[in-house]
Amino acid sequence: MSPIRAPLLLRVQVKANIYKLSVASQTCQRVMSVERIFDEFGHFKRFQACLYFAAVFQAIACGIHYLASVFLVERPNFVCAPPGNITDVLYGNHTGASLEEVLPFFKPANGPMVVRTTVGQQWELSTCQRTQRMNPTDFTYEQVVNRTTEKCDWNYHYVYDHSEVYQSIVTDWDLVCDREWLAKLCQPTFMMGVLVGALVFGDIADRVGRRRILMITSLCQFVFGVSVAFMGNYYLFMVIRFLLAMVSSGYLVVVFVYVTEFTGNKVRTWTSMHVHAAFAAGVMMVAITGYLVRTWWIYQIILSTCTSPFLFFCWKFPETPFYLMAKGRLQETQVLLDSIARFNGLEPGRLRAEDLLEPNEALLEKEVVPGRAQLVEPERKLSILDLFGTWRMTWRTVTVWAVWFIGSLGYYVFSLGSVNLGGNQYINLFLAGAVEFPSYLIGCYAMDRVGRKRTCAPALLLAGTACMLIIVVPNDIEVLVIILSMTGKFAIAIAFGLIYLYTCELYPTIIRSLAVGSGSMMCRVGSIVAPFCVYLADIWQYLPQLIVGILAFIIGALTLLLPETLGEPLTSTMEEAEALGRKSSPDQGKKDPEEGVEMN
Question: How far apart are CA 293 and CA 288, in angstroms?
């Protein structure tokens, strides 16, 4: 190596290393530097639009798999199977020659079915037990005779009503009575996988890149999704579903980062919020497919393959410029910049990757000495405890976590519970997905007009009001109950959608990722609790709405105490973040544009 070339390579290497350190601490100066890409090439032009809609298309699969269990574990009417063949069936005013003829009308609360077998035995059949009439005189519904009762378990088998649900995992594996809890574990176990996936893939994406994780998780979504349909065993089914949850969560977490790093701050609010819209489209597809296909394994295959075209072009995705710059891969960054320029109809080479390092030049000159590279001393490593550094920040963190929790809890309680509202369960679930589209449009508009706090707090209060009104509405007015439930879902979706961006703006650069990550953890806790909350309807029909309503009211009121961040630049230090919302002079708090990025 020539003596002239050696210092040059050393300088380049040091430049890359120092840049990695500066990215690790996420200084505002670095953000402004890379944001120049969007000032030069456009915040959301042809290149970014194509990437955005392609990446968001696969997010539909996440919405599908998150809610698919609604019909996978659907439980039709059933009774304990009688011994022998049946000749006659009585149930109230209904008669028939087989159980299948009468089962559509069966309601356990109204009494058992009475059947007569070919050998003359008479049995009273309930869901989890069967009773034999001893020495009956005639075949009538009501009869005073001695009886012997035996508990029905999975060894006796059950007879199911196939008029609405031809085949589900409940009917295949008799997940009723003493085994009913196995069916109820399906959704909470999936949400546990979502939690693990968010932790695992979020960290890996920072190490190996966003592009690779998008490719791996989308491929695994297809493989695991189809594999679920061929599991002939409940426990294998649960294991594969857990893995499917991990990769679905991994894709959803990384795609938020991916689209954010390819879009400028002028459209970032809209692009980040409308990833949720793709998720809502997946919920609607679950409703449509569930209505058209009543066999669970066919239903699962169709849902898992509907976004498979994404696999044919996801390998063409580029890595994000933020990640490439963070890793010091300047040559690859330059290739990407030229590609963006050409695709957007601009001249290649108008922006050089080295130009994005200019804010650090003074630092480089100061840190490099002949023959030796001296890296900047790394900053103190922050922990989750720093979110509670002062009473003011403690209160803010608790409130933000509560919004994350109720947003997720309410979202899944309204979604999963929509099939129990009465009326057509498929239409209800479809509406639960469709109502999210106007919520994100209105939410985005309100966030940029009246502010983050003044959008989030009223949305939570509206959701709480809808829950309370559902409780007082008479059961026979199903249409009004459905309208109120959709209103609650509309409101909670607004709060759930904006909390991502609001959290970013409430915390300084040095701890922003940790704040969003910890909030996301509370979100996953809410999604795990939600299925159990829905199951509380077995105790009292309106208990889920009561819980969500009370929490939404309390947390909505607490949100009013948070500072407003609309129009405020992103803070860099804990002191600046803590000062948000405090009364100050008009000039105080204003920053030079080079010191902060406003996300409009």
Answer: 9
Predicted pLDDT of residue 518: 81
What distances in angstroms separate CA 245 from CA 131, 161, 225, 311, 413, one per listed residue?
43, 30, 10, 18, 18
pTM of the model: 0.81
Q: Does pLDDT of 206 surpass 80?
A: no
- Span 293-314, mean pLDDT? 90
Residue-level pLDDT at 586: 43
DSSP structure class, residue 570: P
Specify whether the CB–CB gap between 500 and 516 falls below 8 A. yes
Comparing CA positions, the residue from 67, 84, 145 lying closest to residue 433 is 67
- Both structure tokens of 580: 């948000």
Instruction: Kindly indicate the confidence band of residue 591, based on its pLDDT and cuts at 50, 70 and 90.
Output: very low
Q: Which helix (H) or strand (E) holds 466?
A: helix 453-472
* Residue 165 pLDDT exceeds 80: yes
CA-based end-to-end distance of the chain: 50
From residue 585, give the alpha-carbon distance in Å to each of 579, 589, 590: 12, 8, 10
The whole-angstrom distance between residue 581's C-alpha and the CA centroid of its chain comes to 30
Highest averaged pLDDT of the listed ranges 146-155, 164-173, 359-368, 454-463: 454-463
For residue 158, what is the enclosing H or E element?
Answer: strand 158-160
pLDDT for the residue 382: 64
Give me the residue label for tokens 């879902």: 489
Angle, helices 186-208 vs 512-535, to 10°: value is 170
What is the Cα–Cα distance from 131 to 84, expressed in whole angstroms?
14
Q: Please state, in angstroms and rounded to a whole number, the distance separating the CA atoms of residues 351 and 334.
A: 8
DSSP three-state, residue 484 = helix
Of all residues in the chain, what percent carry a pLDDT higher than 70?
85
In angstroms, rounded to a whole number, what is the distance separating the alpha carbons of residues 303 and 230? 14
Strand ranges for 321-447 from DSSP E: 368-369, 372-373
- Residues 92, 93, 97, 102: is their CA dihedral positive or negative? negative
Of residues 28 and 115, more confidence is placed in 115
Is residue 304 within 8 A of residue 226, CB to CB? The reply is: yes
Helices (H), 233-379: 234-261, 268-273, 275-292, 296-305, 310-313, 321-326, 330-343, 361-367
Using CA atoms, how far apart are residues 598 and 600, in angstroms rounded to an integer? 6
